[in-house]
Fold:
Amino acid sequence: LGDVYKRQAWAVDVFSTWIGDDEDLWSQASNWNPAIVPDNSGGNNFYVTISPVGRDRIRFTQDRTVSRIICYGEVDLEIGERILSLLDPNGLINHGIFEASGSGVEHRIHGNILNTEGATVQVTYWSEQQGEFVNNGQLMVVPGGNVSIDYGNLINDGTVWLYDGTASADGLENGDSGVISGFGSLYGGQVIQNAGLIRAFGGPLTIA
Structure:
């Protein structure tokens, strides 16, 4: 007639740092400190910091969900055909040079992105984001690049450079310090609010 004890598992916040040198794979525990592959699907909350000395490419082999990623230095997430989901309100915070690369596929990030002052986000291929994109630094969309922001606004208080690229969002808010410059296509969905500067440079700029 013993007592029955019920044990409840509590989620733990895990702060993970990329130390990668093992085939650049997110899925290799040896690329992380602590040596656990960050993914919230196991019940814990992972807060990831990526701060390479030089340029680091990180390759995805399956969908991943984490609470937050903070990037310093030069970081290239090769998401490919996978989905990166970010649960924190500031899901991805970039303080360096950030790129989601890999040709021939659409890179998908579900969550909010904050590009801080002095930082750069480069779009070289097709990138789809579900969430808000707040740009206080530089967003650069090069030829062949297409950034599509669904279910959220592009809020710009920095600079958006279009080099024959395309940027689209459900809504566009260009603040009083915001500059959108270049040539290509800019689509603001249902609402375009401009208190800053939008100019064509180097060729025609389509705004709709």
Notes: The two ends are 73 Å apart (CA to CA). Confidence is low (pLDDT under 50) at residues 1-7. The CA atoms of residues 180 and 198 lie 5 Å apart.
